[in-house]
Specification:
73% of the residues lie in helices and 0% in strands. The chain has helices at 3-22, 29-65. It is mainly α and 78 residues long. The chain has two helices and no strands. The termini are far apart.
């Protein structure tokens, strides 16, 4: 399993937990806190997945079109 698949599986797991907890949302403060925590954790996982997908795409494009520019400091390397 690669990192993308692991993140997608974790997101699905969080969504399932959120759905189960949604029924008990107004019953106690602990349920409300847990629900909010799950929402935040899911958002973090989604952001990590987005960054992982974005980085792979951007890095691929950079490799194709990016030309290494010479800097002044490059001329002084030993």
């Amino acid at each position: 399993m690669n990192k993308k698949q692991i993140l997608k599986k974790q997101i699905q797991n969080k969504e399932l937990q959120i759905k189960k907890l949604h029924l008990h949302l107004s019953s106690t403060d602990i349920c409300n806190q847990l629900y909010n925590t799950l929402i935040i954790e899911k958002a973090i996982l989604k952001k990590q997945l987005e960054e992982l997908e974005k980085n792979a795409l951007i890095e691929g494009i950079k490799k194709i079109f990016h030309k290494k520019e010479k800097l002044i400091c490059d001329y002084f390397k030993n």
